[in-house]
Structure formats: structure tokens, C-alpha cells
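User: Hey, quick favor. My workstation is busy. Could you predict this chain's structure for me?
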Amino acid sequence: MEGVAGLEESNLAELAQLISAEVAGLQDAWTMSDVQDVTEPDYEMYLLTLSALSHVHATLSPGRYWILHRDDRVPSTTEECIAAGAGICGNQAQAMLDVMRELGGQARPVGLYYRGSLGQASHAAVEVAWGEGWHFIDVTNGAVFRRRGGRAQDLLSLREVLEAPDRRQLALVNASKPEFRLTSDLVGDPLEYLEAEPDVVFDGQGTVHLKPRDEGSRLHYSLIELPNYVGATPRFMGGVGTLTLRLEVPRSIERLDITVQDVGCAEPRLRAVSDSGSWEAEVSPGADLSLPVRAGAGHVVLSALAAPGEVCYVIMSAISAVTSAGELP
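Assistant: No problem, here it is.
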């Protein structure tokens, strides 16, 4: 079984072997009872996905994670999370990705960004491929979504879930987990993102909207629970696509101020595009940029530029806009 690049074949490989053996044993048992469909390739990947979901869900405890967080001993990699028995949604999603790839499956990360009952929120999940499409797996909530009237393995993609008028009723969840019960009982629906019209990032590809806090002469864009970068991230960081940020501009602006935290290539450039034009600037770690971005009420799109074929990203720690005294021509 081929290992995932950058990870030791220890806890991860052992977990993948356990999942593989579990599914093989179930297939053997049912084949002896003349149930033949269990060996069909799509159904086998469906079983491997459910087994991986169950094991990751049971192994990486959010409660244990917050205990370690309190003691400043937070695990990071999948190996560390399995060893510690701890993880929150991002760790659980990454572990699911690593396990499915270790099993020979195709999987991709999914990020959701939305306004929830407690304000700005985010959630990490995955999609696994079999048959003719992708299938959405909410690892943290032990949730999958099945097509009405379909076969057991006919799980929906996230796009299909969000398009369904009865999307919440399609969810099959493990409602016995304590974190699910606590959220449901005291906070709200753990699957509230389904009704929140989230911005969705598939495998690092997508656009996330940022709404400002208006302080009169300046608009401030919080990056809490939101991506703090633009550009493309290498696979080991969770994505291979290109992310852009769309800054909502409720009124005219004449400048964009950005603090750059870090960059991920040799000669990165930051681009801002509005209805009034486009602006570019070279960036470096720790730089404070002031771009003469002019925009009427609408939006500004931020992106990262690099040489063709180069993976590049720009991480930011602060974004704000200076508003205009009057309307732009």
C-alpha cells in the first residue's frame, strides 16, 4: 500500500490497513451468503469510505483536541492527531483525505465559509470519488447525504446537496457523538451551513466573500474564520487550486491597505481588480502595502500572480480600505 508523501507509514498505514481488512472481511462474509454486489468496485469504494469515516470520526476527538489546546500541545499532522486521539474539523478532514489516498481512493478537501448562528464560521469536509462523480462526506458530524430513491452508494456531491430543496432531510448523521449532541442541544444545528449559502472551496479552488466592518473613513475586513491568503497552495497544505478573495465595498474607496504576513514563491505579486480598473504590486513577507485601488459601491477581487506553472500564495494578516470623500466618477 503506497504511503502519503511526507507522512511516516505508522499510525496512518495501520489505520488504513484496519479499514481495508474490515471491508474485505465484510465482503467475504456476504459473498458466502450469495450477496454478490458487495464486490462491485463502486460499492467497495463506498464501503471503504464509510469505514474510514467511522474510524476517523471515532479516533480524532474534538474534546481531546481542546484539552491539548489548553495545554499548548495541539497536534498538527495526521500522524500526530491519530497518536493523540485528537482533532477538530480541519484535522479530521485531512485525516480522511490521507486515509482515502492511502487506500488508493481519490479524495479532495472542501472548505465552507458562511455566517452562522454565532457569527462568521467555517467548516472543513471532504469529497470522495467513485462511479461518475464526487460524494460529500462531513467527517466531523459523521454525515453523508443519499439521493432519494437511489442505491446505497448513491451519495450526493456537495453541489447536489446545496441544490436540493430538502437538503437537511437528506442527511444521514451519527447523532450520538457528544460534540454533535452538545451543539444540537445548546448552540444550534451542526449542519447549519446547509442553509447559510456558504462560499465553497473545492481542493483550494474558489472565491470567498469578505464583508467589511464600516468605521466611517475606513472599511476593515476581518480574516477570522476565513482564508487569510490568495493564490495556489501546494498539495500538502490541502489544495491545488487557486483561491481569490472578493471584498464587498458598500461605498466608494480610494485606497486598499494590506499587511503581508508571508509569501509562497520567489517573486509574487498581488492584484486587485474593481469596476474602475486593476492594480498590481510586488510583495514580500512583512510588507505593508498601500494600493491606490479605486472602486464604487460593489467589490474588489484580490488574487496572487506568479510565473507560469509556479505554485504561489500570499498570506495576509490585515486588510482595510480607505473610503472616498465623495462618489467616484
